[in-house]
């Protein structure tokens, strides 16, 4: 088409089906999303697909001449300032993440308190004179309207902010660029959405989204500018490349975990286990620093807010309270019981994931319009309130008020001086309910109450995860586990006719660990998070046993929740190892052919045509020797990226203009950094007919030493090289150093171990 001949100024219009304003700084993807598509009622979705719409991040620096010159110019002292800047950024990440967590916590506490007081007064009023259905209506309407706002902003403004954000950050750290995942706009929507969905009484927690929030903060600070605000603060320009940004994002994720659970070490381990693909000691120490700062900030601000400025007693958003070692030690004969609880947790977790899988498939197929998503969220909110109300209404489990610390005691049909114990579970934010289940003295709950609550909450939480609201799955799974764990403890003391060694709180903790481990399948970091959150090291061993069992049992049935959602979104995710049975495949079978190569001195017209070709849409081009007339082999000379070519065309760095000294100055690395990360699309760059005949010299911009493999290399070997170095392009050459193919992320990600052995996924353009 003649798109490449359109002269595009930032205010002009590009006609693609409709008039849409195209900003030069915006991504090419945003051009595509503006086109109104006729939406079908059903989207055929196949989980055996791999989507091509995700770009890869390049963890490997392009060592071209510009880069080498700049690095040689920097002396030792300048490198020290860069290192100091890194520490400063990590401290800022910690402080800001802590403050965001405080903001969420304080706002949720006040709004939820307001809501529960309103409903409680209403219920107390109507219990006396009859007509409790009004209270139910009030509660359901409040919930639905709050959730409606929370769902509207997510569905219509920033759909990436839906869910917990952990799968998205996992993908980002794995090297997949998910559009808009670390934008400021996403952070704002995420924070507001989390507050609204927790206040709206959904079965969600505010802990998971903290990880996403921390990552956005990290990406924003380390780049020293914001795309959403369209402001460039001209600081930290050295860090404008994928390598650096990704290291900071893993620090942000760790800071988010440690703010959520008050577990700095757990945060570092989470970042290691779930996220970061690349690791070294310096990075670990910086990440730990960011986590500590984040916990400390949250702690001090909340202490001041609660009015005891010098007492640092609230390290995380959720505080499980202290488990004292005296009454809480465990004996050797309880270990088999804990292991059995791990098995139960694994089975229940697998059931949860399987149900959620079918539900998500249904959502992808039928509930893909934003308006439908909002309606579904409101429906879930109303149903959650109704279920809670009916359970409280039907429960005859009354407990004496004195000596109990219930925030909003509902009397309902209990005698004076008593309260309804079902209400402590349902009529509360999930965090508080978890702490109650851990710490209420034995006999506070009727087994019937706990059983009903577990069943109902299991299905509610499963239905809620994957709605178009920002919400985490950590707290609901802890709550389900704590409820059935406590039930387990009570029934044990019934069986053994003695209540000495079965303190239900201990079993509630183990149940919570088993359930959460069975759903998300984290082992190392979760053990440490639970230990830090309960402040008790004695439980390290049983928690580890429970989590190991839950993971082994759960993995036998279905994979973890986050991996499942990554797979459902068809993301080309690379695991640590290549599939075990893949030694028979070689690079020749895996690679993509034919490869579009550029000559070292190439016609501008050819470059423009290759870049404008939408059918191929490649991002890296091998550069070969440029004199084809001689008998010499056109060997591989280097690799150049689409983004670099676009900057060259934009600045018109042509051989002829250089000879006429029309080019004002040599291009510096700064020009490439200023364009990062949203390089303008090729359609926005105007090249005249005369300029198409010019030549462009790629010698000093290409990476002269790209990684290559011979075509006989086996798949595990190619995979190891690609994964360990975080590559984006791996060139396959024959024995004369001629380019025969190219391995990219999707070529490796499409081989997966299925039930019958190695399967190959098909690639889809969508």
SSE blueprint and pairings:
Elements: E1 13-16, E2 18-21, H1 28-33, E3 49-51, E4 55-56, H2 65-73, H3 76-129, H4 133-156, H5 166-174, E5 176-177, H6 184-199, H7 208-223, E6 225-226, E7 231-232, H8 242-261, H9 264-275, H10 281-305, H11 325-328, H12 335-366, H13 370-394, E8 398-400, E9 418-420, H14 421-426, H15 430-439, H16 447-464, H17 474-496, H18 504-520, H19 524-534, H20 540-557, H21 561-568, H22 587-590, E10 598-599, E11 601-603, H23 604-612, E12 620-624, E13 636-641, H24 642-650, H25 655-659, H26 669-675, H27 689-692, E14 695-697, E15 708-710, H28 715-725, E16 729-733, E17 739-744, H29 745-749, E18 751-754, E19 757-760, E20 762-764
Keywords: CBS domain, Chloride, Ion transport, Membrane, Repeat, Transmembrane, Transmembrane helix, Transport
Protein name: Chloride channel protein
Subcellular location: Membrane
Explain how this protein is built:
This protein is mainly alpha-helical. The protein is 54% helix and 9% strand. It contains 29 helices and 20 strands. The protein starts with 12 loop residues before the first strand and ends with a strand.
Number of strands: 20
> Please, what is the oligomeric state?
single chain
Helix content: 40-55%
The percentage of residues in β strands lies in 5-15%
Please give the radius of gyration in angstroms: 29 Å
What structural class results from the helix and strand content? Answer: mainly alpha
How confident is the prediction overall: mean pLDDT? 82
Q: Quickly count the helices.
A: 29
What best-fitting shape do the alpha-carbon axes yield? Answer: elongated
Low-confidence stretches: 1-39
**Biggest sheet character:** 3 strands, mixed
Q: Distance between the terminal alpha carbons, to the nearest Å?
A: 22 Å
Adjacency order of strands in the biggest sheet:
10-12-13
Domain CBS: 702-760
Subcellular location: Membrane
GO molecular function: chloride channel activity; chloride:proton antiporter activity
Membrane topology: Multi-pass membrane protein
């Amino acid at each position: 088409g003649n798109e490449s001949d359109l002269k595009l100024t930032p205010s002009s219009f590009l006609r693609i089906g409709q008039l849409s304003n195209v900003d030069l700084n915006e991504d090419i993807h945003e051009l595509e999303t503006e086109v109104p598509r006729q939406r079908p009622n059903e989207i055929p979705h196949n989980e055996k697909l791999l989507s091509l719409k995700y770009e890869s991040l390049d963890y490997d620096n392009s060592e071209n001449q510009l880069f080498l010159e700049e690095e040689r110019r920097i002396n030792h002292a300048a490198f020290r300032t860069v290192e100091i800047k890194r520490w400063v950024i990590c401290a800022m990440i910690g402080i800001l993440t802590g403050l965001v967590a405080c903001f969420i916590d304080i706002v949720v506490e006040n709004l939820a308190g307001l809501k529960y007081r309103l409903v409680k007064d209403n219920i107390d009023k109507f219990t006396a004179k009859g007509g409790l259905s009004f209270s139910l209506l009030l509660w359901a309407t409040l919930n639905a309207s709050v959730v409606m706002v929370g769902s509207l902003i997510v569905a219509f403004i920033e759909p990436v902010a839906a869910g917990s954000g952990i799968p998205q950050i996992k993908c980002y750290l794995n090297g997949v660029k998910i559009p808009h995942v670390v934008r400021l706009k996403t952070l704002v929507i995420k924070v507001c959405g989390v507050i609204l969905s927790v206040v709206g009484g959904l079965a969600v927690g505010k802990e998971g989204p903290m990880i996403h929030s921390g990552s956005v903060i990290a990406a924003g600070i380390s780049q020293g500018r914001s795309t959403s605000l369209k402001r460039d603060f001209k600081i930290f320009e050295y860090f404008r490349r994928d390598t650096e940004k990704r290291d900071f994002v893993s620090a942000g994720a760790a800071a988010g975990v440690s703010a959520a659970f008050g577990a700095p070490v757990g945060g570092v381990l989470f970042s290691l286990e779930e996220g970061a693909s690349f690791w070294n000691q310096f990075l670990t120490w910086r990440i730990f620093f960011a986590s500590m700062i984040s916990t400390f900030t949250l702690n001090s601000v909340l202490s001041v807010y609660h009015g005891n400025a010098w007492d640092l007693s609230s390290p995380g958003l959720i505080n499980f309270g202290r488990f004292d070692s005296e009454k809480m030690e465990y004996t050797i004969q309880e270990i088999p019981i804990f292991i059995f609880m791990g098995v139960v947790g694994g089975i229940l977790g697998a059931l949860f994931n399987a149900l959620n899988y079918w539900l998500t498939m249904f959502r992808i197929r039928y509930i893909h319009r934003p308006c439908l998503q909002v309606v579904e969220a409101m429906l879930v909110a109303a149903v959650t309130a109704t279920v809670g109300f009916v359970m409280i209404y039907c429960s005859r489990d009354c407990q004496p008020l004195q000596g109990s610390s219930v925030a909003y005691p509902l009397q309902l049909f209990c005698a004076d001086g008593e309260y309804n114990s079902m209400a402590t579970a349902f009529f509360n934010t999930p965090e508080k309910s978890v702490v109650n289940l851990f710490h209420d003295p034995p006999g506070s709950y009727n087994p019937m109450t706990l059983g009903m609550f577990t069943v109902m909450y299991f299905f509610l939480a499963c239905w809620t995860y994957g709605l178009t609201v920002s919400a985490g799955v950590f707290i609901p799974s802890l709550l389900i586990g704590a409820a059935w764990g406590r039930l387990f403890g009570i029934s044990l003391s019934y069986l053994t006719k003695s209540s000495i060694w079965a303190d239900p709180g201990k079993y509630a903790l183990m149940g919570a660990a088993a359930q959460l481990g069975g759903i998300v399948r984290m082992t190392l970091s979760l053990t440490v998070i639970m230990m830090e959150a309960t402040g008790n090291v004695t439980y390290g061993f049983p928690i580890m046993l429970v989590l190991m069992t839950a993971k082994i049992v759960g993995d036998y049935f279905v994979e973890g929740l986050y991996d499942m959602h990554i797979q459902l979104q068809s993301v080309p995710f690379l695991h640590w190892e290549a599939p075990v049975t893949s030694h028979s495949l070689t690079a020749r079978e895996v690679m993509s052919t034919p490869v579009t190569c550029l000559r070292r001195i190439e016609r501008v017209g050819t470059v423009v045509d290759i870049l404008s070709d939408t059918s191929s849409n490649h991002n890296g081009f091998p550069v070969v020797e440029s004199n084809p007339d001689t008998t010499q082999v056109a060997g591989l000379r280097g690799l150049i990226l689409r983004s670099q070519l676009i900057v060259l065309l934009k600045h018109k760095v042509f051989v002829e203009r250089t000879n006429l000294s029309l080019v004002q100055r040599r291009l510096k690395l700064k020009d490439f950094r200023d364009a990062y990360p949203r390089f303008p699309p090729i359609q926005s760059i105007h090249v005249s007919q005369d300029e198409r005949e010019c030549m462009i010299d790629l010698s000093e911009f290409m990476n002269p030493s790209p990684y290559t493999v011979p075509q006989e290399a086996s798949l595990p070997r190619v995979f190891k090289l690609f994964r360990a170095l975080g590559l984006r392009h791996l060139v396959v050459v024959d024995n004369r150093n001629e380019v025969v193919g190219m391995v990219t992320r999707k070529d490796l990600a499409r081989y997966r171990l299925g039930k019958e052995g190695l399967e190959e996924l098909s690639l889809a353009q969508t």
